[in-house]
Amino acid sequence: MRYILAVVLSGFVSFSSAQDMKLRYDQPAKHWEETLPLGNGLIGMMPDGKVSDEQLVLNEISLWSGSPQDANNYDAHKSVSKIQELLFQGRNDLAEQLVNQNFVCAGAGSGGGKGALQPYGCFQNFGFLNFLHFDIDEVSNYQRSLDISTARAQTSFTAAGVKYQRDYFTSFADNAGVVHLTANKRKSIGFALHFYRDENIKSYQIKDNEITIEGRLPDGKGGDGMRFAAKIKVIAKGGSLMNYDNQLVIKKADEALVLFVASTDYYDHDPVAYVTAEMDKLKGKSYKQLAKAHQKAYEPLFSRVDLKLAQDRSQESVPTPQRIANFYQDPASDPGLAALYYQYGRYLSLSSAAPDFPNALPPNLQGLWAHRIQTPWNGDYHLNINAQMNHWGVEVSNLSEYHKPFINLIKKIAKEGEKTAKAYYNAPGWVVYMITNVWGFSAPGESASWGASTASGWLCNHLWEHYLFTQDKAYLKEVYPVLKGAAVFYKATLVKDPKTGWLVTSPSISPENGFKLANGKRAAVVMGPTIDNQIVRELYQAFIAAGKELGEDEAFSDSLQQDLKLIPPAVQISKSGRVMEWLTDYEETDPEHRHVSHLYGLYPANFISPVSSPEWAEAAKKTLAVRGDEGTGWSRAWKILFWARLHDGDHALEILRQLLRPATVGATSYSGSGAGTYPNLFCAHPPFQIDGNFGGSAGIAEMLLQSHDGYIHLLPALPGIWKDGELKGLKARGNFTVDIKWRNGRVVDYRISAAKAGNVKVLVNGALQDVQVSVIK
Ligand code: FUC
């Protein structure tokens, strides 16, 4: 690495050593939300660490029921002008009826979030690996942990004077789950092992030391859909191995290695042939070799960023559930937990996407972890906040390539979305709506109140941000047609509001809030909700900038530049001093609604800023005061980012505390209350939904570093109680890498490095420095 700038403002005391990155437990998991997530972006494994009847929840990220379908209603465009006319007349209630009749998807759509048996399908659990460990009753010294700096979990205890240790990882070098069972006395390892899945196993065979499973999921149209396969192999040292009643039975071994390999035909390969080949690759490799290869592949990724917030290390040995409870009581008692939570978000990014694997999928609502067949909301890709939030942290947290699977999904659905643009508006370009799946669903959802918002513009924010961070022109060239297609769609479909003359989307909603009409009726459908105005504005600006970079489409860019004058302002302030959620200052149905869509312009976009638009920033604060600090898991996470962008670190920390509220385990269905954090640090919507983890982690980064206002801002929202800290390796737009040390709330040392020389503006301790950069060799 070459440094372009190194500034030392004063001396400082170093933090003693790297902060511990372990989740620790002194008991086995009783519930799924206490088990420890391992994943390599393709497969997942969650051991519960029980001493005798141990279970590992298994996952494969592409395992989806359902099948490709064309859910577009090709007659929808015939209703558009009627719907728009009703909206011009202020008859949103009637417009909404018409949207529900003619402007939703054809067919069952997501099946009301329960689409396992519909064409839409759902992401689902792969199965369970069940161990019955022999002769282990009373145990002492029980410990269970997940070390996110090595991506390995461990269970250890003593039973009848013998020390047992079990190690688990999903390899970043091989596509395999690995379990290693050892004891400090020979012949102590004995267990019966079997695989179980609730449904759709077509074949289960045991040969020698290996179980092979084949299955097929329903396609949602009455036939067979996705094929899947797995192999589980046991390699024991010493003792005996036999199979009995669908189980592999190991007795009196000195140690045992269990390998798990799984895949589906989503990747256009025969899953049986694939798992056979993968298992073959593992032949002859010892546990040590497997672990070493995993370490070599994983650790350089994780260690790109280091964050230390605590000099006092005493909390690190406290069991994680207790740490969560303590933090909720008093965040000052354990700043180290915030650093762990931040890194846990990075760990989950690394574990739930595999950017180098062809056709790799991005993390879904569950990441890639699920213990049920019918996952909540189908475990899909919700596009009105959730899938986006899953990627808010990847750029700043130096995992830029982990944006790629999402970007590829965007490209893929953009293709499908060309049909949707035709069907709903008879328009060119592409549009997708609020939900998608691995089958490329692009039509609106089945109900207007949540399914009628377009997502294409918001998705382009990701295409553009990846460029801003990486400055990779070859990449920009590749996604430019996708940006253009989205702009072409909006350009063709925005309508002129007769009252204001503004160009607005229609019909649309502000996710997923409703309002009261003057006639007393309630509705959600509108033209030009604030979020759309911000998104279209952002998209046009990004497209124009991209066109300039690439020297393309001058005339079209000029026409968008003209249109920008007619897009409603990014913010209108209401009578009550808040950011208006809609063009009309309606009274919202739910003033504390979890979605805060009209603050899209504060984060992830950059229209509302205490620096460049202080009045709007004030209105955003009032908006947040009414929305409140609570909400679902992801809603709290978003609010951390809002307060970070408003440069209020104490308020951001207060919401982080709310996000880390100990949540009750075992929730099975959606609830608007009870959000927080489970014992395994998974975010509770509830139930578990991973967006809050990713958003919370991104929020912590945003408190420490921002770069959206044309300069790099060090510690823009540092909470008062995080007086001292050190961070290394965060990324700023422009492809800069940033290290900061601070003491007593002030930066005492920082370093900004980059591959090439250039100018960079840095705001440090309140002073904007225009730094002449020089490359240090
Ligand atoms: C959006 C949110 C819900 C939930 C779902 C998966 O619809 O409004 O709270 O997160 O996605």
Automatic annotation (TrEMBL):
Keywords: Hydrolase. Residues 286-704 form the Glycosyl hydrolase family 95 catalytic domain. Residues 23-267 form the Glycosyl hydrolase family 95 N-terminal domain. GO terms for molecular function: hydrolase activity. Pfam families: Glyco_hyd_65N_2, Glyco_hydro_95_C, Glyco_hydro_95_cat. Residues 706-768 form the Alpha fucosidase A-like C-terminal domain. PANTHER family: ALPHA-L-FUCOSIDASE 2. This is Glycoside hydrolase family 95 protein. It comes from Sphingobacterium hotanense.
